[in-house]
Amino acid sequence: MRSLISRIALTCLLGSSILHISGAPQSKSKQPNIVFLMSDDHAAHALSAYGSVINKTPNLDRIANEGMRFDRCFAVNSICTPSRATILTGKYSHINGVPVFNRFDGSQPTVAKHLQSSGYYTGMIGKWHLGSDPTGFNKWTILPGQGAYFNPDFLAPEGRKKIEGYTTDIITDLAIDFLKNRPKDQPFFLMCHHKAPHRPWEPDAKHKAMFANRTIPEPATLRDNYASRSDALHENQQRVFDDLTRSDLKLVPPSDLKGPSLNQWLNTKPKEVEITVNGQKKTLTGETLNQWKYQRYMQDYLACIQSVDDNVGRLLDWLDSNGLRENTIVIYTSDQGFFLGDHGMYDKRFMYEPSIKMPFIVRWPGVIKPGSVEKSLAINPDFAPTFMEASGLSVPKDMQGKSLVPLMKGEHPPDWRTSFYYRYYHDPGNHNTRAHYGVRTDTHKLIHYWKKDQWELFDLSTDPNELRNLYGDPQQQPTIAKLKTELYRLKTELKDDDTTADKFADQGVDGPFPDKKRNEPNL
Questions:
Q1: b/e burial code for range 458-484 (CB count within 10 A of at least 16 → b)
Q2: Digit-coded pLDDT (tens) for 21-74
Q3: How far apart are CA 128 and CA 519, in angstroms?
């Protein structure tokens, strides 16, 4: 009997070794694959998984339903390029060197490099927007700068090429090609970054038609008068009613306009608009025009998201039908939040909830309980440490975020953060948004516009829409003192030196930072 058992054990051991050497499927204990899907400017409240009343996102909901939805995940600098640098490095802007739209130093350590050196096959597909070429990736194909929605150019180590079609479809095609052609004996890490729904909100015909005749519910704060708030909010230039241009609204210019005259016409913020309804021309002004502007903005924005949702479904289907579901972590997020008429605005940057809150949903079969909801405070510096721990690697000590893996497993570490630090540098930048920093806790938010020396305090438990600035209320002084203590503790812990802030604020411009290697603006 002992001899028989020994022969069976030896046979099993040899069989296991042969499977390992041949690259055949191994046990679930091997390093998981990671697919990181990120869109640009996708507000969490435009996903039905987060309770959207303005659209349905069934394929994104699928990730949440089969995994976990993080309800309180935030960007620590709500703007495209800095958020991407933070996600790659696990570090705040003042540490990774990208506080505004300046070039990312690709020689520094990134999570892609760590995973690549540990044996992962790494890929970067889609919107990069960091000025320098990607490093740490076995294969990359990226949009130059912001890229185009239709028939976009792409950059790769082999050079520049134009691909016919719609960018969201193309990026998904390229991501699936990466998966098809990957080495089958290595785990993979794929960053698939969509351009949509970033401005100028250009949907394809199919999805545009889905929203063309829809009336989108207006948010409760669309007509916020900013009473009690700082001068910074009053001075902003990202208002739906006042600052959307003819180009944003997709108005058709006169046929005889060319060159500078055409650009001037397109960049004008119209006070009246002529439209055709049932064959009749109608001039819109005042409140009627304001209502129309909001609908026009949201119809295109939501149509762009619908294309993202469809393509996420297509990628999920490919993973599932090719035997990759069980050992692949799928994450969907956006590089920050976005104002969908909230506080009357349409961009981001401010430390208000719609701007800084990121959708973050994760599917990890066998680890995450399907349908889970996590309410602990998470921030985008946490993403890189999460990838590290999920892949079985130690988190580098210089990463400033925390791995979210324990939360995904249903654990709640007793030392988990109860506050986080935020800083926005670009002053005045585009949209005339003033530089500020602040602290958010479970129940409160304190914001300091340091160049104006003005403060805002919000009690999020009683005022979730952040309409009442309590900073001047004498009864709030004990709360303010506690929040300031926490704010300065975080600044010290994160090594944020105020002496560099003004220098950072003056770097870059909104959109084009010069791409010297390619001699083109990164628009």
A1: bbeeeeebbbebbbeeeebeebbeebe
A2: 333 333 334 899 999 999 999 999 999 999 999 999 999 999 999 999 999 999
A3: 17
Domain boundary, last residue among 291, 324, 351:
291
- Which residues in 308-385 belong to E strands, given as ranges? 328-334, 360-363, 372-374, 378-379
**Predicted structure pTM score:** 0.91
Contact 20, 26 (CB under 8 A): yes
Assigned domain for 387 exists: yes
Strand partners, 319: none
Is residue 21 in some structural domain?
no
**Are the C-beta atoms of 49 and 370 separated by less than 8 Å?**
no
Domain count for the chain, please give it: 2
Amino acid at 226: Y
Q: What are the pLDDT digits (tens) for 148-184?
A: 999 999 999 999 999 999 999 999 999 999 999 999 9
Q: How far apart are CA 311 and CA 189, in angstroms?
A: 19
Say whether both 167 and 280 belong to one domain.
no
**Pair 508, 514: CB distance under 8 Å:** no
CA 431/CA 450 separation, integer angstroms:
18
Distances (CA, A) of 108 to 82, 114, 516: 15, 11, 19
CATH of the domain at 160: 3.40.720.10
Lookup: tokens for 466: 């952040």
* 450 and 320 housed in the same domain: yes
- Cα dihedral 348, 352, 356, 357, rounded to 10, equals -120
HSE at residue 103, side-chain half, CA atoms within 13 A, is 14
Task: Give the three-state DSSP class for 362.
Answer: strand
Q: What phi, psi does 263 have (nearest 5°)?
A: -60, -40
Closest CA to 468 of 352, 358, 294: 352
Q: Give the domain range for residue 337.
A: 29-204+292-521
> What DSSP line would sit under 421-457, residue for residue?
EEEE--SSTGGGPPPEEEEEESSEEEEEETTTTEEEE
- How big, in percent rounded to 5, are the helix, strand and coil portions of the chain? 35, 20, 45
Residue 4 covered by a domain: no
Nearest to 140 by CA among 159, 117, 115: 159
Alpha-carbon gap, residue 268 to 253, rounded angstroms: 11
Pair (191, 225) in one structural domain: no
> Which position has the token pair 């960053």?
191
Show the 3-state SS of 252-263.
CCCCCCCHHHHH
- Residues 422 and 296 occupy one common structural domain: yes
Whether residues 150 and 280 fall in one domain: no
Within this chain, do residues 429 and 351 fall inside the same structural domain, yes or no?
Answer: yes
Q: Which of 291, 306, 330 is at the close of a domain? A: 291
